Predict the 3D structure of the following.
Amino acid sequence: MSIFLQQVFNGLSIGALYALVSVGLTLIFGVLEVVNFAHGQFFMLASFCAFFLSVLLPRVPYPLLILLTSIAMGIFGGLYAWLVICRLIERSWKVSLLATLATSIIMTNLAIFVWGAVPRIMTTPFIYRNFSVAGVSFNLQRVIILGVALLSFFLLQLFIQKTKPGKAMRAISQNREASSVVGIRIEKMALLTFVVGAGLCGLSGALVGPVVNIYPNMGYMLNLKAFAVVIMGGFGNVKGAVYSAFILGVAEALAAGYITTDYVDAISFGLLILVLLFMPHGLFGKKVGI
Amino acid sequence: MNGEGKGGPLRNVRFGAIGVFVAFSTLLWVLPYLVQSSYVTHILILAAMYSLLGLSADLIIGHLGFLTFGHVAFFGIGAYTLAILTTSCQVPYPFAFLAAGLLSGALSILLGVASFRLSYHSFAIGTLGFAMIAQLVARNWIALTNGPMGLVRIPKAALQIPGLGEITAKSTTANWHLIFVFLIIVVFFIRRLLRARIGRAMHAIRENETLASTLGVFPLRYKLLTLFVGAMIAGFTGAYNASFLSVVAPDMFALEWTTIMLIVVFVGGEGSVRGIILGGICVAVVPELLRMVPSLRMVLYGLILLLMIVFRPDGIEGIVQTYMQNLPFSKKGHP
């Protein structure tokens, strides 16, 4: 039983990572109808960013480090949207998809060229601290990941539902033309959406960087899984993405614990195919809305 | 290879076009004897393979209108089928080659039934998942595929004729001739296919699926058929690649191949046979001219793809067409 609970906890903390990455992805799709193929590479860049910040500024407390990484990534996302996405936003979905795919290739291989393929390890004060409750050992870093992720989803939901830019985002996702008629600047909102999405990547990079190896290809598999999560949750559905990310994380951890570790990475797509065969519109129905 | 009018398959081909085609193919056929460099022949083979992969992927991307990222799986499955059949099962080469294409095609039906249910974006990602699962199987099913070590000592392409003995494509030049013939067959086959009912059905589905189905085109049947044909060509190409290199490894399913296919299709110009062949040649030749570190080469590929998509979405074919329209003997009103 305690092994089961242990695996569930591990799965939830991995699910938090999937959720942080896929929420940005699904938000960008929901608002802009852009499938951002470079999102996993954004996460990779964020992890490197957090790593170098922690090396260069060892005195900076960890919460501030998380904040700095998020801000840096937010700026990067804004720049990227300004340089590339804003030019493509009126074109067909194929164009933006291929452009972001090209971006992901450029980012991964530039990272290999600049930083090499050797994995780096980032440490925080919390990574080696464990406490156990009822036979289940909780790693403090993983608890922090889970807590900060849940907090940020709450804040994001608040932002989307209550603030004016959030309402504008929802308006664009419902009808782009009509919202530009009533005076919403699409380019501006595209920029903002990318800032939020990349900022969430920054958050996840700083949070998860310490529990994984940091290397240029780390975003690739994560990206595929984030896509599986986004499709399972229904494209553009933020809440659906969060739930399916946690489901996937737990399913993977249980499969790794009880069946085999060889095919853990295939589980997301096996699950995806199963979901789509029986529920073609994702786990949470067709209702699209961020 | 251009300038065929409407009507019968070969009836209205202009003699000039035939002349150019014959001259070009003869030149390409004898090029290895003229240059006497196996390096150049290697690049020719690479260009032909890229063109074949681009052409087969373009059936689904350009003609059917579904962006697929899973095409590389059929390339790899073809290669592994041939490798396993010829090494551990000792099947004669021609049968193994046919089986490679057919198995790729059969698996494509499986993929198609599951993933044509998806919307366009999800189709792209679902097929990518298929390619990923295929790679995981190649890497982890060690009893069958020998895992990350790959399979080695795959025999060269050979044809056993009863009474005459065996013809084997041992030299690089022979391998070039083999793939060149295959490329020409595929080009003629695809051009014929596109003018037949299936080709028109594909274009109808691309333009408006609902409308096509009201006109008596059953979309799923034609989608599966197109996927089957594309997968089969990719499977044959994979089988060829396996016997040419005499090694297969899980790398054959890597994202790099997918990237190359997409670049060939989109830099060449989707939906155009000539453009894609030009694209295949470019993708094979340009990195050789630049001679750089592999990771930087991928950066370059990415940059080319990005710039081409942003600034020149109709690809090389678009550039060629604008140029051709200004020639004095060009046919006006080319579609």
